[in-house]
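In keeping with the milestone schedule agreed at the kick-off meeting, the structural modelling team has produced records for the first pair of proteins. Each record is given below as a sequence line and a structure-token line. The laboratory manager (R.T.) confirmed that both were archived under the project's standard naming scheme.
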Amino acid sequence: MKCPKCGYVSFDYNESCPKCDEDIRAERTKLNLSDYRSDPPFLLGALTGQVNDSEGEIGIDYSVDMEVPEAQGDMNLVNAIETARNEALMDKAEKITVVIDKKKGRVWAEA
């Protein structure tokens, strides 16, 4: 909110200008601005030094030392699919010959 007297821009919840101490409540009411100071979100609390300790425990139990199953079968399937795709592309590919004629300065392709 901008102070009508000195032009200093401050927060909407201030009752007076921090710079010139002008009462800005009437201006705030005229602009229909809120008059309460909201709490910073938890993530910003660490930056402002106002850490909110009301999180507590959420009651989820988990184990860190879980074993990851081997994905060898999945990798074999992926490799098989890639191989089949590459073979299909090679079967459909045409044989193209590139001809370079240095005397005439031309390059062309023949199928």
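The second protein of the pair:
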Amino acid sequence: MKKEINRREFIQLTVAGSALCIGGSSILAFGANPKASRLISPGCRRSKVKVARIYMANPTNPWSLWPKPNLDLEGEIRFYEGQFAKLKGELYDVEFAVDELVTSAEQV
């Protein structure tokens, strides 16, 4: 493929590409607004949705904890419970029916 462009075309393309990168970053981040969440749950706020919150790990098998072999499972569960607590207002129509740690496939 031999397509030659002159200096004027090169500068025009460079300016257009730079403008897209600088000014278009907010356009490309479609719907991104860090101040207001647009989270809509599957129940569409008309009915409660039941969700199972399952933490999966096998503390007896170090490979199941990769890349954190010294993972504190209880601490990790507390961390995620805190994150869900922060979203409580947005998830008011979600009922977490199951909230447990699963350590084997038979428990599921």
